[in-house]
Write a structure and sequence with these properties.
The complex is a heteropentamer of chains A (176), B (504), C (101), D (546) and E (646). Chain C contains three helices and no strands. Chain C has 101 residues and is mainly alpha-helical. In chain C, helix 1 runs antiparallel to helix 2 and helix 2 runs antiparallel to helix 3. Chain C is elongated, with a radius of gyration of 17 Å. With 546 residues, chain D is of the alpha+beta class. Chain D contains 23 helices and eight strands. In chain D, helix 5 runs antiparallel to helix 7 and helix 14 packs across helix 18. Chain D starts with 6 loop residues before the first helix and ends with a helix. With 646 residues, chain E is mainly alpha-helical. A two-stranded antiparallel ribbon of chain E has the order 1-2. The longest helix of chain E is centred in the C-terminal third of the chain and has 37 residues. The relative contact order of chain E is 0.07. The chains are: A mainly alpha (176), B mainly alpha (504), C mainly alpha (101), D alpha+beta (546), E mainly alpha (646). Chains A and C meet through helix 1, helix 2, helix 3, helix 4 and helix 5 of A and helix 1, helix 2 and helix 3 of C.
Chain lengths: 176, 504, 101, 546, 646
C-alpha cells in the first residue's frame, strides 16, 4: 500500500478519534484541543482532495482564528472561582438516537451510491494547464467570485460592527 | 485565461448598472459607518434619516428596474450568480417599503442615550444589511450565492434579535444562532451533495438538474431534504421553526417585523425558483415533491395554529402566526402552476403588509409592556380605541376574513389548490384544501385573543397610560387601509403581479 | 487514488459526531464546536467534489466562504455568549431558560 | 326619478353612513347616538316604502334571469387575471326578487324594533350603535347581493359586529356565547367559501369579447354557464370520494347555511347566543340573522344545485323534522324564558327547512312566510323577555307567577306573541305552517323514499309541543297567584312604558295583519316561487337523469 | 216559501251583530257593555231565524274574497273565504245564536263577574263569532281557522279567572287536549289540500259522493280525531270536566252550543265525506264515551261536574249516531241537548248562587228558594234523562233506533261486535237516569234555610225559556214519534223504524234507573265495592292519572333527555371539535370538565395535550434541534420505505 494513502487513512482515523473524544470529554479545554487536532487532520485530508488553498485557509482561519476565538470564549466565560472546565451532557437517549441514526443513514446511503462517475481523474481544461490550483482560485476570486468576495467583505465588516456593539462594555458605569 | 478574466470583469462592470439597488444599500451601509466613525456619532434621528433615505433610494432604483424588464425578460448577472427578473424586483420594492417602515418604529434599545444612538446606527445598518441579504436571495441563481445570502440574513437576524440589549436578549439570540448554525450546516451538507451530483452550483444551469436526475437515488433525496432544512429554517416552517418564539420574544419590534417578512419571502422566492427542478427530479423517485411539500405545509399550518392557541405572549403568538402563515405560503409551491404562483405572490404581499402593520401597532403597546404579555392588554381597547381597532383589522387580515385583503389572499390560494386538484386530481390537494380552510377557523381563536382581551376584559385600576405616537398610528392606519383597499380592489395589486413572468 | 466514497464516509462520520455533540452537550461553546465540526465535514465534501470541478473550482471556493462565514458566526456567537454569561452567570444551555411560555 | 335605480345601494349604505356618523360624533353627543341610529333606520324604512311602491311583481320573477330582477344595480368591481385559466370577474351586483324583498322588509322592521329596544343601553354607546348600524347594513347587503363574493362579504360581515355586540353588551356568560357563535358561524362560512371557490372556477360569463370566471349568482343558476369539464359542470361527472362533486358541493353549502338557520344538530350556538345577547341583539339575531341561513339555502343552495336539492330533499326534510321536534322538546323543559324562545326558534326554523325541502310551491311559500312571520314573532317574544329582564334582571320562568294581575297590557301582548308562536290561525305562523304542511304532503307523494308521508304527519307533533310550551309559560308566569322570587321586584314590576307599548303594539299589529291578510306578502313572491320551483325541478331532474 | 235572493251583506249581519254591539258598548257605555252585546247578538239571531224561514231549503254558497292562494293555472290551490247557507248551517246558526243570546243576557247580572266585564264579553263574542264561523264556513281550511279560534276563546274564557291556578291549568289543559285533536284536522287538511286540490266543502262532499278514495278515509279519520278532541270523546275527554273552572255562563255556552257542539256539527256537516271505517270507529268511540261519561257522572259531588260528564255522555250518543249513519238524529239530539243543557247550566248557576256553592250537598231545598228556576231545571233534567214528553226523549229515541238498526244490519253482515255499541248506549241511557235522579234527589232534599235571594229577570227569564225549550214541542209535534220531528229532513235519508219493544224498554230503564238514582242520595253504607265505584266514577276512570303516567310524564322525560342530549352530546361535539384531535378516550372527560368553562379553556387544554411541538419537553434549544432532527429522520425513513416499496 502506498505510504501516502496510509497517511491519509491515519489522519482520517486521527480526526475521527479526536472527534469521538470531543463527544465524550468532560473538559472544555480538552475538547478545544481535540477540535484543533481534527482541523489539522482535515487540512491534510484537504490536500489529498487536491484543495491546497483550502488546506492553507483551514489552518489559518480555523486553527488560527476560530479556535482561538473559542478558547477565548472558554476563558472569558469561566471567570468564576472554583470553575473547572467541566461541561456536562444531557439528552442522552434522544440526542444519540437522532445523531447516530442520521450518521448511519448517511453512511448507508453513501455506501449505496454508485460513484463510477468519479472513478476517473478530473480533466483539466486546456487554458488552465499553466496554472496551479491556488493561482486559479486567486484569479477566480477576483473575477467570477468578485461579487461574493465583496459581499464577504461587507459581511465581515457589518458582523464585526454588530458583534462589537454587542460585546462592548455598557457605558455610563452600568458595566458589570 | 486572461481574456476570460477580462471578459468576466467587463461583464461584471456592465452588470453593475443593473445592480444599482444593492449598490445603494451597500453605499448607505458604508455611509452610516463612515459618518458614525468620522463624526462624533450619529444621532438617532440622523441614523433614521440615513437609513430611510437609503431605502428610499433603493426603492426608487428598484422601481426604475421594473420597466427595464419586460414581463418575459430576465437578466443574469455576474457570471450566473444572480438573476434579475420582475419577481425579484417586485419583492425588492416590498422590502424597501418594509425597510422604511421598520426604521420608523420606536427605538427600543436599552442603554445610556449616547450608546443608544450608536447602537441605533448599527441597528439601521443591520436592517439595511438584512435587506441586502434579502435582495441577493431574491436574485440568487447559484447555491453559493444563496448560501451567502442566507447567511447574511441569518447573521443579521441574530444580531438584530439581540438589539434590545435586555436581560434575555442573549438567550433569544443564542438560541436563534445555534438553531441557525445547525440548520445551515445541515443545509450545506445537502448543498455539498447537490453540488457533487449536479456538477455545478448554478441551479439555473440546465446541466445541474439534468445531472441530478441521472442519479435518482436515496442520496439525492437526502440531499434535497437536507438542503430544504435551511430554506425551511428561513421560512420558519415546521420542523425548523423552534427558534421563532424565543427569538421573537426578545427582538426589537421593528427588527422583528423585518425578520418576520424579509427572510421568509426571500426564502420563498428561492423555493419557487427551485421547485420546478426539484419536482422534476423527484418525479423519478417514490417521493413526490407535491406530497412532500403538501405534508410540510399541512403540518406547519396546523401545528403553528395549534401552538399559537395557547400563547400568553403577543410576540410568541405572532411567532406561531408566522409559522402558520408559512404553511399557507408553502401551499403556493406545492403545485407551481401559474395561478398558484400569482396567488402565493399575492398572499406574500398581503402577509407582509398585515404583519408590518400589526407589528407597528404592537410596538405602540410595547412601550409600556416590554414583554407584550397578553395579560396586560386587558381593557386597553377602551383606553385608546384607534390603535385597538387598527389592531383588530390587522388581526382579521392575518386570520383571512373579509373585508380585508387577507381574505382575498386566502381565497386565491385555496382557489389555486382547487384548480390544480381539478387538473391533477391528487387527493392530497383536497386534504390540503380542507385542512387549510379549517385552520383558518382555528386561527381565529388566537388572532382575536388580543382584541378580545382589549375589548372584553375590564381595564385594571392601575392601567398604564398609552402613548400613541401619531406617526406610527398614521402608518399603521395606512397599512390597514391598504389591506381594506386591496380587498375591494384586488386587481390593483394583481395587475402588478400579473406582469411578473411566471416562466422564471 | 483514494475512492471518493471514503472521503464522503469520513465526512459523514464527522458530521454525525458533530450532530451528537450539538445534541448532547450542555455547554454552549461545545455546541459551537459541534457546529464547526459539522461545517468541517461539509467542507470535506465540497473539497472532494470540487476536485472534479477544475474549471471553476466552486467546491474549494464554497468551502472557503463557509470557513469565512463560520468565523463570523463564531464571532457573533462569542459576543452574545459573553453578554449571556454576564446576565445568567452560566453558559450551561440547560440552565438558560428564561424564555418559556 | 333616477335615484330609484340606486335604492338598494341606499338601503345598504344609509346605515353604514350612520355608523360612520356615530363614530365621528364626539362623545359630547353621546345621548344623540341612538337618534342617529333611529334616524338611519327610519330613512331605510322610507326607502323601503319607496321600493315597495315601485315593486311590480309583473315585471319579473327574478331567480333565473337578471332582467327579471328588480332595482338591479350592476357595476364592475374587479377583474383579476389568473393566468392560464383566464380571468375572474366580480361585480357589484344588487337586485331583489320575490325571495329577497320580503326578507328585506322584515329586516328593516326588525332592525327598527331593535334600535328602539336599544334605548336603554347604557354602556359604551358609541361602540354599540356603530356596530349595530354596521350590522344593519350588512344584513341588507346579504339579502340584496347577487354576486356571490359580495354576498359572502356581507355574510362574513355579520359576524364581527355580532360577536362584539354579544360579547360586550351581553349577559353573564356572554364571552362563551360570543365565541361559540363566532366559531360556529365561521365554520359555516368556511364551508360556503369552499363551494364559492369551486363555483367561480366552474362558471363563466361572457361580455361579447371574452369569457370571465364569475361570481354572478344568477349566472350560476343556469347550466349552460358552467364551463364544460369543470368541476361542477352539470354535464360532467366529476367525483370526489365516490360522490358526484356537485352533491358534495351542495351538501357543504347546505351545512354552511344550516348552521346559521340553525338545523339540529348544528344549533347549539343559538340558545347560548340568544340567552346571553342583549335584548335588541337577540331580536336581530332571531329576527334577521337566522333568515340569512334560510335565504342562503334557497338562493345559493337550491337554485345553483337543483340536482342536489332534489337528491337530498328527503334528507333535508328529515333534518327539518328533527329540528321541529327537537327544538320544541328542548323549549318544553327550558327554565329560562329567553332560552325557551330560542329553542322555539329552532323549531320554527325547522318548518322553513321542511318547506324548502319539499320543493313545491306550497313549501317554498310556506318557508318564506315562516321566515317573515317567525322574524316578527320571535322579535316580539324576545322583546317581551327583555321587558321582564329590564325590570328585574331575571328571566327564570319559575321565579314569576301571576304577572297578569300586575301587568295586564304586558300580558296581553305576551299572549299574542305566544299564541302566534304556537301557530294560532289568524296569526301568520299558522299560514306558514299550513303551507309547509301542504308542501311536505305534496312532496311525500313523490318518489323519494326518505320523504315519506310520515314526515308531515310527525311534524304536526311539533304543533302540540309548541302549544305545550307556550301555554305552559302563560300558565306558570302570567296566571295564578301573584308571586315573584324576590320581594323587591314587586315594586319594579310595572306595566309597559310608553316606548315599550308603542314598540310592542306596533309589532303585534303587524303580526296580526300578516296573519289576517297573507296575500299582501304572498303576492310579492308567488311568481318568484313558481319560477323557482319549476326551474329547480326541471333542471334538477334533467341533470339527474342525464 | 219562495227563497230570498241571497246577498253577501247578509253575512255581515250574521257575523257582525255581537261584534258591533260589543264595540258600541265599549265605546258608548262601558258599564252596560253586556246589554249592548246581547242586543247585537239578539239581532243577529233574529236575522238568522228570519233566514231560516225563507231560505232553509235553498243552499247558497257565497265567496266573500280570496284569502290567499298558491300557484297558478292548473295547480292553483285557492283558499277562499266561503260561507255556506243551507238547511243544516242555518238551523245550527240559529241555535247558536239563540243560546248565545240567552247566555249573554244571563251574564249581564252574573254576580261572580265583578267589575269590568268588557274582557269577559270580548271573549264571549269571539267565542260565538268563531262558532258561527265554523257553522257557516264553506271552506275546510277556514273551518279550521274558526275551529282553532274556538279553542283559543275557550282557553281565554275557561281561564277567565286567571288568578286561580286551577283555572289557568284547566285552560291550558283544554287547549292542549284540543290541540292533540287538531293534529288530526291538520292532517286532514294536508290530505284534502294535496289530494283533493281544494278546500271547498261542497266540492269535497260532491267528490266523496261520487266515490270514496283511499285518502278520504285518512282525512276522515283525521277529522274524527279532531272531533274527538273538540267534543271531548274518549280518549280525549278529560279536559271538559276541568273546564268547569270558568264562569258558569261560559260553561253553558261551551256545553250547549259552541265548543263541544262544534265537533258533532263538523261530523254532521262532513258526513258524506266520511268513509265506512271512520264511521264505525266513530260509533264505537261514541258508545264508549256515552257509557264512560254517564258512569263518571254518577257519583260526582259537584253539580257542574255532573253536568259536564253528562255532556260528555250525551255527545257520545251523538257521535255514535253519526257513526251508525244517522247524522240527522245526531243533529236532532244536538239541538234538543243545546236547550236543556244550557238550561241546566244556567239554572245551576242560579242555584249555586243561592246555595253559595256548587256542591250537591249544599243544594237542598231549592224548590223553596228559587221555585221557577228549579222547575225549569227539573224540566231540563228530565229532558236529559230522556223522560217521555220531554225533548230529550224524542231525540234519544231516534238515536237508539238508529243504532239498533245499524247493529242489526252489521250483525247481519257478520260484524258482531257492533252489538257492544248498542249495549253501551243502553247502559248509557240507564246510567243517565241514575245520575239525573240522584242529582234531582239532592236538589229536592228539604233544607231549613230561608236566606232567599231574589233572582234578577235577566237570569230568570233565560232559564225559564230554556226550561220550556226542554219539552217535546221543541223537537216536534208528536212527543213519541221522532220521525216527525221538524228538524228532520224527510227527503234526505231513510228513517229507520223503531222496533216495537224499544219504547217500553227505554221507559222501564229510565224508571228503574231513576229509582236507583233517587235511592243513591240516601245511600250511606260504606261498602268496599261501593267505595271503589265511587272513586272510579268521581275520578273519571282515573283517566287523568293514566294520561299523566302514560303521556305527559314520558313526554317530559323525553324532553328532558333531549335537553341532556343537547347539552352534553351536541355541545360536547362542538367543544370536542374545538378540541380537535384529542383521543377518544379523553372525550367524555373533556366534555364534563370543559362544558361550562367553554371554548377558551378548551383550546388551552388542547394545546396542553398536543403542545409537545411548542414545548418539546424542556424549552431547551437542543430539545428543539433533536425534535427537528427526528422529524427529518421520520421523513427520510418514510422515503426509504418508499424506495423499498413499502
Amino acid at each position: 500500500m502506498d505510504a501516502a494513502i496510509v497517511t491519509f487513512y491515519m489522519f482520517c482515523g486521527l480526526a475521527v478519534v479526536a472527534a469521538t473524544g470531543m463527544v465524550f470529554t468532560k473538559n472544555l479545554l480538552y475538547a478545544a484541543g481535540l477540535l484543533a487536532i481534527v482541523m489539522l487532520s482535515l487540512a491534510v485530508v484537504f490536500i489529498y482532495a487536491g484543495a491546497m488553498f483550502l488546506a492553507v485557509s483551514q489552518i489559518l482561519i480555523y486553527v488560527g482564528g476560530i479556535l482561538v476565538l473559542i478558547i477565548f470564549g472558554v476563558m472569558l466565560t469561566s471567570r468564576k472561582p472554583g470553575f473547572s472546565f467541566e461541561a456536562g451532557t444531557h439528552y442522552h437517549f434522544f440526542g444519540w438516537l437522532a445523531g447516530l441514526s442520521i450518521m448511519v443513514i448517511l453512511i448507508m446511503t453513501i455506501l449505496d451510491f454508485d460513484f463510477t462517475r468519479w472513478m476517473h481523474p478530473p480533466e483539466v481544461p486546456d487554458n488552465l494547464s499553466g496554472y496551479t490550483s491556488i493561482q486559479h482560485i486567486g484569479v477566480l476570486l477576483m473575477s467570477k467570485y468578485l461579487l461574493i468576495l465583496e459581499l464577504a467583505a461587507i459581511f465581515l465588516l457589518v458582523v464585526m460592527a454588530g458583534a462589537l456593539q454587542i460585546g462592548a462594555k455598557e457605558e455610563g458605569g452600568k458595566a458589570s | 485565461m486572461e481574456q476570460e478574466v477580462y471578459s468576466t470583469l467587463t461583464e461584471t462592470l456592465d452588470g453593475l448598472g443593473t445592480f444599482l439597488p444593492e449598490i445603494a444599500l451597500v453605499a448607505s451601509i458604508l455611509l452610516i459607518f463612515a459618518l458614525e466613525t468620522f463624526t462624533r456619532g450619529l444621532s438617532i434621528q440622523w441614523s433614521r434619516v440615513m437609513g430611510i433615505g437609503g431605502f428610499m433610494v433603493v426603492l426608487g432604483l428598484s422601481l426604475l428596474q421594473w420597466p427595464l424588464l419586460d414581463s418575459g425578460n430576465s437578466i443574469t448577472l455576474f457570471e450566473e450568480m444572480l438573476i434579475l427578473d420582475r419577481l425579484s424586483v417586485f419583492f425588492k420594492i416590498l422590502f424597501s417599503i418594509a425597510g422604511i417602515l421598520v426604521l420608523l418604529f420606536p427605538v427600543e434599545i436599552n442603554g445610556e442615550p449616547r450608546q443608544v444612538a450608536h447602537r441605533f446606527a448599527v441597528f439601521a445598518v443591520l436592517i439595511l444589511f438584512m435587506a441586502l441579504g434579502g435582495h441577493l436571495l431574491l436574485m440568487a441563481s447559484n447555491l453559493l450565492m444563496a448560501y451567502m445570502a442566507i447567511e447574511v440574513l441569518s447573521i443579521s437576524g441574530y444580531l438584530i434579535t439581540f438589539f434590545r440589549f435586555e436581560k434575555y436578549s442573549g438567550e433569544g439570540g443564542i438560541k436563534y444562532l445555534i438553531f441557525g448554525g445547525v440548520s445551515s450546516a445541515v443545509m450545506l451538507y445537502g448543498f455539498s451533495f447537490l453540488y457533487g451530483l449536479g456538477g455545478t452550483l448554478d441551479f439555473t444551469n440546465p446541466d445541474f438538474f439534468a445531472q441530478l436526475s441521472v442519479s435518482s437515488v436515496p442520496l439525492l433525496v437526502i440531499a434535497i431534504l437536507m438542503s430544504l432544512a435551511g430554506i425551511l429554517f428561513k421560512l420558519s416552517a415546521i420542523p425548523m421553526h423552534f427558534w421563532a418564539p424565543d427569538a421573537y420574544r426578545v427582538a426589537p419590534t421593528g427588527g422583528l417585523a423585518f425578520i418576520s417578512v424579509v427572510p421568509k419571502i426571500a426564502a420563498l422566492v428561492l423555493l419557487i425558483r427551485l421547485t420546478p427542478g426539484f419536482s422534476d427530479i423527484l418525479a423519478a423517485t417514490p417521493l413526490s415533491w407535491m406530497v412532500l411539500m403538501a405534508t410540510i405545509a399541512m403540518i406547519t399550518m396546523t401545528a403553528g395554529n395549534a401552538a399559537a392557541l395557547s400563547q400568553k405572549n403577543a410576540l410568541r403568538l405572532m411567532a406561531y402566526s408566522g409559522v402558520a402563515h408559512t404553511g399557507f405560503l408553502l401551499i403556493g409551491v406545492v403545485v407551481l402552476t401559474e395561478y398558484s404562483f400569482y396567488a402565493v405572490v399575492f398572499y406574500a404581499v398581503i402577509f407582509a403588509l398585515a404583519n408590518l402593520g400589526t407589528f407597528l401597532l404592537l410596538s405602540v403597546y410595547r412601550l409600556n409592556n416590554p414583554g407584550l404579555e397578553m395579560s396586560r392588554f386587558h381593557g386597553l381597547g377602551f383606553k385608546a380605541a384607534l390603535p385597538a381597532v387598527l389592531l383588530l383589522i390587522g388581526m382579521i387580515a392575518l386570520t383571512g376574513l373579509p373585508p380585508t385583503a387577507g381574505f382575498s389572499g386566502k381565497l386565491l390560494l385555496f382557489s389555486s389548490v382547487w384548480e390544480s386538484y381539478q387538473s391533477i386530481g391528487n387527493t392530497i390537494l383536497t386534504a390540503l384544501l380542507i385542512l387549510g380552510i379549517l385552520n383558518t377557523v382555528v386561527a381565529l381563536g388566537f388572532y382575536l385573543k388580543i382584541p378580545y382581551l382589549m375589548f372584553f376584559r375590564p381595564l385594571p385600576a392601575e392601567a398604564p397610560r398609552i402613548q400613541t405616537p401619531s406617526l406610527i398610528i398614521v402608518f399603521s392606519a395606512m397599512a390597514m387601509f391598504l389591506l381594506l383597499y386591496i380587498f375591494f380592489q384586488p386587481d390593483s395589486l394583481m395587475r402588478w403581479i400579473n406582469s411578473i413572468n411566471f416562466a422564471l | 487514488m483514494i475512492p471518493i466514497s471514503h472521503f464522503l464516509l469520513f465526512s459523514a462520520v464527522l458530521f454525525g459526531l458533530g450532530l451528537i455533540i450539538v445534541f448532547t452537550r450542555k455547554h454552549i461553546l461545545m455546541v459551537l464546536m459541534g457546529i464547526e465540526l459539522m461545517l468541517n465535514a461539509v467542507n470535506i465534501n465540497l473539497a472532494v467534489f470540487g476536485h472534479w470541478d477544475t474549471k471553476f473550482q466552486q467546491g474549494q471556493i464554497f468551502a472557503l466562504f463557509v470557513i469565512l462565514v463560520a468565523a463570523a458566526e463564531a464571532g457573533v456567537a462569542l459576543a452574545i455568549i459573553i453578554k449571556l454569561f454576564k446576565n445568567f452567570k452560566t453558559v450551561d444551555l440547560s440552565r438558560i431558560s428564561g424564555l418559556k411560555d | 326619478m333616477t335615484m330609484d335605480q340606486y335604492l338598494l345601494s341606499f338601503l345598504i349604505f344609509t346605515p353604514i353612513a350612520g355608523a360612520l356618523l356615530v363614530l365621528i360624533l364626539p362623545a359630547k353627543f353621546e345621548s344623540q347616538y341612538k337618534l342617529v341610529g333611529l334616524g338611519a333606520l327610519l330613512i331605510m324604512a322610507l326607502i323601503l316604502i319607496r321600493i315597495y311602491t315601485l315593486y311590480d311583481p309583473q315585471h319579473g320573477a327574478g331567480v333565473y334571469e337578471l332582467e327579471a330582477f328588480h332595482f338591479v344595480e350592476h357595476a364592475p368591481w374587479f377583474t383579476l387575471d389568473l393566468g392560464a385559466i383566464g380571468s375572474l370577474r366580480a361585480s357589484y351586483l344588487l337586485g331583489v326578487d320575490g325571495f329577497s324583498l320580503p326578507l328585506v322588509m322584515l329586516s328593516v322592521v326588525v332592525l327598527l324594533a331593535g334600535v328602539v329596544a336599544s334605548w336603554g343601553i347604557k354602556k359604551n354607546l358609541k361602540g354599540y350603535f356603530s356596530l349595530y348600524l354596521l350590522l344593519s347594513g350588512s344584513v341588507m347587503g346579504c339579502f340584496v347581493a347577487l354576486d356571490f363574493l359580495l354576498f359572502y362579504l356581507f355574510f362574513e360581515f355579520l359576524l364581527l359586529p355580532m360577536f362584539f355586540l354579544i360579547g360586550l353588551w351581553g349577559g353573564l356568560r356572554r364571552e362563551y356565547a360570543a365565541i361559540k357563535f363566532f366559531l360556529y358561524t365561521l365554520l359555516g362560512s368556511v364551508l360556503i367559501l369552499i363551494v364559492m371557490v369551486m363555483l367561480y372556477l366552474s362558471v363563466q360569463e361572457g361580455d361579447g369579447e371574452a369569457f370571465f370566471k364569475t361570481f354572478n349568482m344568477v349566472s350560476m343558476t343556469q347550466a349552460e354557464n358552467f364551463i364544460p369539464g369543470s368541476a361542477l359542470d352539470p354535464g360532467g361527472d366529476q367525483m370526489l370520494w365516490g360522490w358526484p362533486l356537485r352533491w358534495v358541493a351542495f351538501l357543504l353549502l347546505f351545512i354552511g347555511f344550516a348552521i346559521k338557520v340553525p338545523v339540529v344538530p348544528l344549533h347549539t350556538w343559538l340558545p347560548d347566543a340568544h340567552v346571553e345577547a342583549p335584548t335588541a341583539i337577540s331580536v336581530v339575531l332571531a329576527g334577521v340573522l337566522l333568515k340569512v341561513g334560510g335565504y342562503g339555502i334557497l338562493r345559493a343552495g337550491f337554485l345553483i344545485f337543483p340536482d342536489g336539492a332534489i337528491e337530498f330533499a328527503g334528507f333535508i326534510a328529515v333534518l327539518g323534522l328533527i329540528s321541529i321536534i327537537y327544538g320544541g322538546l328542548n323549549a318544553l323543559v327550558s327554565k329560562d324564558l329567553k332560552r325557551l324562545v330560542a329553542y322555539s326558534s329552532v323549531a320554527h326554523m325547522g318548518f322553513v327547512v321542511l318547506g324548502l325541502a319539499s320543493l313545491t310551491n306550497e313549501g317554498f311559500s310556506g318557508a318564506i312566510y315562516q321566515m317573515v312571520s317567525h322574524g316578527l314573532i320571535s322579535s316580539l317574544l324576545f322583546l317581551v323577555a327583555g321587558v321582564l329582564y329590564d325590570r328585574t334582571g331575571d328571566r327564570m320562568i319559575e321565579k314569576y307567577s301571576g304577572l297578569a294581575q300586575k301587568m295586564p297590557r304586558f300580558t296581553a301582548i305576551s299572549v299574542l306573541g305566544l299564541f302566534a308562536a304556537l301557530g294560532l290561525p289568524g296569526l301568520p305562523g299558522f299560514i306558514a305552517e299550513i303551507m309547509v304542511f301542504l308542501g311536505a304532503m305534496t312532496a311525500a307523494k313523490g318518489p323519494d323514499p326518505l320523504f315519506s308521508i310520515a314526515i308531515p304527519i310527525l311534524a304536526t307533533l311539533g304543533l302540540i309541543i309548541g302549544a305545550g310550551y307556550c301555554l305552559w309559560v302563560l300558565q306558570r308566569m302570567y296566571f295564578g297567584k301573584f308571586y315573584v322570587h324576590n320581594p323587591a321586584w314587586e315594586k319594579s314590576l310595572i306595566d309597559l312604558t310608553k316606548r315599550e307599548s308603542i314598540l310592542l303594539y306596533s309589532l303585534g299589529l303587524l303580526i296580526l295583519s300578516l296573519g289576517l291578510f297573507p296575500s299582501f306578502l304572498i303576492n310579492i313572491y308567488e311568481g318568484t316561487v313558481e319560477a323557482a320551483v319549476s326551474g329547480i325541478l326541471e333542471t334538477g331532474n334533467a341533470i339527474l337523469n342525464r | 216559501m219562495e227563497a230570498l235572493p241571497f246577498h253577501n251583506w247578509y253575512w255581515d249581519l250574521i257575523f257582525l251583530g255581537p261584534v258591533l254591539g260589543l264595540i258600541l258598548g265599549l265605546v258608548l257605555f262601558k258599564k252596560k257593555v253586556g246589554v249592548f252585546t246581547t242586543l247585537g247578538m239578539a239581532f243577529s239571531t233574529f236575522f238568522l231565524v228570519f233566514l231560516c224561514l225563507w231560505n232553509l231549503d235553498t243552499p247558497v254558497t257565497s265567496k266573500i274574497f280570496n284569502w290567499w292562494h298558491i300557484g297558478s293555472g292548473q295547480n292553483i290551490l285557492q283558499v277562499d273565504i266561503l260561507f255556506t247557507s243551507n238547511r243544516l248551517t242555518l238551523l245550527m246558526g240559529s241555535l247558536v245564536g239563540f243560546i248565545a243570546t240567552l247566555v249573554f243576557w244571563y251574564s249581564t247580572h252574573y254576580e261572580a263577574l265583578k267589575g269590568d266585564k268588557s274582557r269577559y264579553y270580548a271573549g264571549l263574542v269571539l267565542f260565538t263569532f268563531a262558532m258561527m264561523g265554523i257553522v257557516f264556513s264553506g271552506n275546510l281550511l277556514l273551518t279550521f281557522v274558526f275551529w282553532e279560534l274556538v279553542g283559543f276563546s275557550s282557553w281565554f274564557l275557561i281561564g277567565y279567572w286567571h288568578h286561580k291556578p286551577e283555572a289557568a291549568r284547566a285552560a291550558r289543559k283544554a287547549f292542549l287536549v284540543n290541540r292533540i285533536g287538531d293534529i288530526g284536522f291538520i292532517i286532514a287538511l294536508m290530505l284534502v289540500g294535496v289530494y283533493g286540490g281544494t278546500f271547498d266543502i261542497e266540492v269535497l262532499l260532491r267528490e266523496a259522493h261520487s266515490g270514496h278514495q283511499a285518502w278520504m278515509t285518512w282525512a276522515g279519520a283525521g277529522l274524527l280525531l279532531a272531533v274527538i278532541g273538540k267534543s271531548a270523546q274518549f280518549p280525549l275527554l278529560t279536559w271538559l270536566p276541568d273546564a268547569m273552572e270558568g264562569p258558569t255562563p261560559v260553561s253553558a255556552l261551551l256545553h250547549a252550543a259552541t265548543m263541544v257542539a262544534a265537533g258533532v256539527f263538523l261530523l254532521v256537516r262532513m258526513f258524506d265525506f266520511l268513509a265506512e271505517p271512520v264511521l264505525t270507529t266513530a260509533a264505537f268511540v261514541g258508545g264508549i264515551t256515552a257509557f264512560m261519561g254517564a258512569f263518571a257522572a254518577w257519583r260526582q259531588e259537584d253539580i257542574k261536574k255532573v253536568l259536564a260528564f253528562s255532556t260528555i255522555s250525551q255527545l257520545g250518543f251523538m257521535i255514535a249516531s253519526i257513526g251508525a249513519g244517522y247524522p240527522q238524529f245526531a243533529f236532532l239530539h244536538l239541538f234538543t241537548h243545546a236547550f236543556f243543557k244550557a238550561g241546566l247550566f244556567l239554572g245551576a248557576g242560579v242555584m249555586a248562587h243561592h246555595a253559595n256553592s256548587y256542591s250537591l250537598e249544599a243544594m237542598g231545598g231549592m224548590l223553596k228558594k228559587a221555585p221557577w228556576v228549579t222547575y225549569a231545571f227539573i224540566a231540563a233534567a228530565l229532558a236529559l234523562a230522556g223522560v217521555p214528553l220531554f225533548s230529550g226523549f224524542i231525540s234519544k229515541e231516534a238515536i237508539l233506533a238508529g243504532i239498533n238498526n245499524w247493529t242489526a244490519i252489521s250483525v247481519r253482515e257478520g260484524f258482531h261486535s257492533s252489538i257492544l255499541v248498542s249495549i253501551l248506549l243502553w247502559s248509557g241511557v240507564f246510567l243517565t237516569a241514575v245520575y239525573v235522579a240522584r242529582m234531582l234527589g239532592y236538589l229536592l232534599k228539604p233544607k231549613n234555610e230561608t236566606a232567599a235571594v231574589s233572582t234578577p229577570n235577566s237570569q230568570l227569564i233565560p232559564v225559564v225559556l230554556l226550561g220550556i225549550g226542554s219539552i217535546w214541542l221543541v223537537a216536534g209535534l208528536l212527543p213519541w214519534d221522532f220521525s216527525q220531528a221538524w228538524i228532520i229532513d224527510q227527503s234526505a235519508e231513510s228513517i229507520p223504524e223503531a222496533p216495537i219493544w224499544m219504547m217500553p224498554l227505554t221507559i222501564s230503564l229510565i224508571i228503574f234507573g231513576g229509582y236507583l238514582g233517587y235511592r243513591d242520595v240516601h245511600y250511606t253504607k260504606q261498602k268496599a265495592f261501593n267505595r271503589a265505584v265511587t272513586n272510579l266514577s268521581r275520578l273519571n276512570w282515573q283517566l287523568d292519572a293514566i294520561y299523566n303516567a302514560m303521556i305527559v310524564a314520558p313526554t317530559l322525560w323525553v324532553a328532558g333527555m333531549v335537553r341532556i342530549i343537547d347539552k352534553k352530546v351536541l355541545d360536547g361535539l362542538y367543544n370536542g371539535a374545538v378540541a380537535g384531535f384529542v383521543v377518544v378516550g379523553h372525550f367524555l372527560n373533556l366534555v364534563d370538565r370543559y362544558l361550562v368553562d367553554g371554548t377558551v379553556h378548551l383550546s388551552v387544554y388542547v394545546v396542553r395535550r398536543s403542545g409537545v411541538l411548542a414545548k418539546a419537553g424542556s424549552g431547551s434549544i437542543q430539545a428543539y434541534l433533536i425534535w427537528a432532527a427526528l422529524f427529518l429522520l421520520v421523513l427520510i425513513i418514510t422515503v426509504f420505505f418508499m424506495f423499498i416499496g413499502f
